Amino acid sequence: MQAPLKAGIGFEEYGICAKRSIVLKFWIPRVTILWAPNKKPRWCAMLRVVHVFDVKPGVQETSFVEWLDARLDEITKRYGCLERKTWVFIDGIQGNYVQGRPERRPKYLNEAFWPSQQHADNFRKWLMSDEGKEFRQRWFDSVQNHTVLRYVNGDVPRPVTDD
Questions:
Q1: Measured between alpha carbons, how far is 99 from 87 in angstroms, rounded to an integer?
Q2: Which of 10, 22, 134, 139 has the fewest Cβ atoms nearer than 10 Å?
Q3: Which H or E element spans position 69?
C-alpha cells in the first residue's frame, strides 16, 4: 500500500518486523526511513549506483539515450529503484581550483538510488539473466568507456572521545 504525503514524499508498508509490528517505509527523495510503532525511526543505508559511459560512434545518440532512460525507468521500478536520472558531462577539473587541469570524462552519467544493496543486486541478477539478455546486449553494444560505481550513504566517522 502506498500513500503520498506531499510531492516527492510518501510511505508504504514495508513488511513485518520480528515483533510482528507493521513497518512503514517513508521516503523523501534519496532518503529512506524505516518506522515501526513504539520504535525509534532509523535511517537505512541507501545505495547509489552510477554508470558513466559514452555512446559509440555510429549509434544515434539521442534516440539511444531516450530508449535507455525509458527502459531503465520501467525495469528498475520493478526492483525497487527509488529514483534515477541521467546527467550530461559539462566539464571538470583535476586538482584544485587554482592549479587544476581540465578533466575529460565520459559524456553520460546515469545514477540510480536503491533502498538497499539487495534491491540493486536483484536488478543486476535480472540484467544478467536470459530474460535481460536482449536489453543488456542493446545497452552495452551501444556504449563505450563504461564504468559502474556503487556508493552507500553513511555517517562521517566520529572520533572516539571520553565524553
A1: 26
A2: 134
A3: helix 61-78
The CA–CA distances, whole Å, from 15 to 1, 19, 34, 83, 159 equal 11, 11, 10, 21, 35
Cα separation of 112 and 135, whole Å?
17
Residues belonging to the chain: 163
pTM recorded for the entire structure: 0.68
Residue 25 is which amino acid?
Answer: K
Question: 43 Cβ partners below 8 Å, 6+ apart?
Answer: 31, 32, 33
How is residue 121 written as a grid cell?
A: 543486486
The whole-number pLDDT of residue 153 equals: 80
Q: List, for residues 127-150, the tens digit of each pLDDT value.
A: 999 999 999 999 999 999 999 999
Q: Containing H/E element for 50?
A: strand 47-55
